[in-house]
Amino acid sequence: MAATRYRRFLKLCEEWPKDESKKGRDLGTFLRQRVASAFREGESTQISDPEKCDQMYESLARINSNVYKEKFPRAKDTSFTGVTVEECRILLATGNTDEEKKGLWKTLMERFSSKPEDGTPEKNEK
Predict the structure, then answer these.
(1) pTM score > 0.70 for this model?
(2) pLDDT for 5-41, tens place per residue?
(3) CB-based contacts of 59: which residues, under 8 Å, 6+ apart?
(4) Which residues of 65-82 are buried (b: 16+ CB within 10 A; e: fewer)?
(5) Is there a contact between 79 and 88 (Cβ–Cβ < 8 Å)?
(6) For residues 107 and 95, is the Cβ–Cβ distance under 8 A?
(7) Where is this gene product found (predicted)?
(8) What 3-state class would DSSP assign to 84?
């Protein structure tokens, strides 16, 4: 039975997309590493908790096949901030940009703030 589980996880790893823009932070790469460490002996690996292993596989398979995306469709392809999917991808991509050096939080605050970020507090005039 361990051989069947191993083959199912291998097939899932093959199907799982790999995001080249997130080097070192890609979920597909992380999943492949975890499967390799969990099944060190390949098909002959003894699984201590088969039910938990099956649950984990089913959960990952549902995520990979977009079950929840289809079950709960989004009305718009933007978040509450109005950022599009492509803009989110650019912000989350691993790259050597000036915005990355500033940090994600500061970049987002500058982008969505209506006042300029010059480091001085705004005065309340009455």
Answers:
(1) no
(2) 999 999 999 999 888 888 778 889 999 999 999 898 8
(3) none
(4) eeeeeeeeeeeeeeeeee
(5) yes
(6) no
(7) Mitochondrion matrix, Mitochondrion nucleoid
(8) strand
